[in-house]
Amino acid sequence: MSPREGHPLVIGLLGGIAAGKTAVAGMFAQLGARVVSADAIAHAVLHEPAIRDRIVARWGDAVLGAAGQIDPKALARRVFGHAEELAALEAITHPAILARMREQAAAAQASAHMVAVVLDAPLLLEAELDPLCDLLVFVDCPREVRAARVAAERGWDAEELDRREAHQQPLDAKRQRAHCVVSGDRSLETTFQQVQQVWQEALGL
Q1: How would residue 6 be classed by pLDDT, with cut points 50, 70 and 90?
Q2: I need a labelling partner for 164 at 20 to 30 A (CA). Which of 75, 78, 86, 105 fits?
Q3: Which of 3, 36, 19 is nearest to 174 (CA)?
Q4: Dihedral of the alpha carbons of 159, 78, 49, 105, in degrees to the nearest 10
Q5: CA–CA distance, 194 with 199 (Å, rounded to integer)
Q6: Where are the domains of the chain?
């Protein structure tokens, strides 16, 4: 699929939690893309005084770390598994996160030297960022592999993984929306070869 005339190609990443989307985004970056990361933006947004104050006003000082900043893990314990609390957090943070994602994507697209922009956002479809994309790439990874990753890297059990994914669109729906699939459970070399093939085909190289 070709980019819109006069603009860099915009690639959106889809997949389950811990499927390897961030690693794939990094591979696209190695090939020359600019990555716009929702997780990085979300982390920055939590440090904005207005956002911090609204979060503390709802959940109290228990969500603060030793330095007085929002502790993401403490905040997550308050909201995940509680639909009303999660909705409240999203109402506070999502408008700012989405606005900054759109701003960064637009800035990257405006660069005369940019060939592609990658949107790495867990809720890309849910946040309706997909219309910005020329190409949607699904990062495929079995649940057991993803469960092992979150246990080792985040200390989650399988139930926590399921709770968090329940707030996202089903993986089958994401796969159906994608234009192509790359493997997130193979060796990094194999995944990079797949990413490189997608890159070359998408840009007509």
Answers
A1: low
A2: 105
A3: 19
A4: 20
A5: 9
A6: 9-203
Whether the pLDDT of residue 163 is over 80: the answer is yes
Cα–Cα distance measured from residue 97 to residue 193, given in angstroms and rounded to the nearest whole number:
31
Give the predicted TM-score (pTM) of the model.
Answer: 0.87
Half-sphere exposure of 110 (CA within 13 A, CB side): 6
DSSP 3-state of 34: strand
Distances (CA, A) of 97 to 7, 9, 61, 153, 189: 23, 22, 23, 24, 32
- Judge whether 124 and 131 are in contact, CB under 8 Å: no
What is the CATH code for 9-203? 3.40.50.300
Place of tokens 């591979």: 27
CA atoms within a 13 Å half-sphere pointing along the CA-CB vector of 36: 26
Helix 158-165, helix 143-154: angle, nearest 10: 110
Look at residue 7 in the predicted model and tell me its pLDDT: 75
Residues β-bridged to residue 140? 183
